[in-house]
Design brief:
Length: 367
Amino acid sequence: MKVSHNLNALSHNQIAEAIATLGADMTVLVEGEMGIGKTTILKMLGKMFPSYTLIYCDCTTKDMGDLMVPMFDKIEYKDGRQVSVVRFALNEEFGMHVDGPCIVMLDEIGKANPSVKAAMTRFMLEGVMGNVAKHPDTIVFATTNLSAENVGDMLQGHQRNRIVPVRLRKPDNLEWIGWAIDNDVDTSILAWAKDTPEMFHSFEQYENPKENEYINHPHAKRAAFVTPRSLVTASKILKKRDVLDDVTIQAMLGGAIGTFAAAKLMAYVTLSDQLPSIDSIKADPNSAKVPTAPGAIMMVVYRALLTIERDWVDSWMVYMDRLSQEAQAVFVNNVRKEDYSRQATVVNTKAFKDWCFANGYVFSKDK
């Protein structure tokens, strides 16, 4: 296993903040491994600038003729002369027609046709397409995979010199879990992710791909593997396990995250039988079943984070007091995160405040 890693790589939040601050004056190129949420940055920026129009442009689907279409016109002079000229109508995907600022994401620019890359150079440098300039507040950024992944991403030196390439690092398991809780990811996957941080490692950390069989590695030629994106796909599959049989579920998971990872995940799925029902926790938190397996306990906690409502916070706090200190800390620390969507539901209750006081927690937003 390598000990060296890209120390200059930034998190999603850091890159979003950089683009929000500088993106109107320069184009930031977000480079990162496949499936780690590069396109998610557009949604993050949309929340930061709610009045802006979001523009998604898939550069892999464009040819030169898709950017600007010629149209004929005539210029008439006072002396009666007429000169025929060609003007260009611009593709609406670049937002040049919008009356107001936009956030334009040029997705997969490194895989675009060479003619498209050349045509986009001025837009990325000066914000000009044809003879039309973007709104002065419009933010432009681009994304691409790492060249080391061998999936066809390449920009020439003079093109990279006109933009600001920045490396996006993979989220670690706890960072991803925080996002996944607010995006309704299956609790089995949340518990699995907590216990398996190596699923979120970069291939650059491994000389030998056999050292980590979960992830993509350029030297391994794996047909399927774990990424944050494929974990969301796996979650959608698991949410249909009341309809599909276990053999079908495992086969589908193998197609999404690889057969190695699918077998590991199914072990967590079987733990779901140990979970108490939400109704039993609501009705009698002192007697509701407490799982014995640590993974199942985490599933109960993550399920509560995903589904808790005001009418059973008090019951949950009583039940939670029967769980391990680690499990209680996982719940409270996730509630304390500023972007947790159900935070107000929990923290404004006497039961939660009493727990924090009794356990020495000071509830305040992280600086």
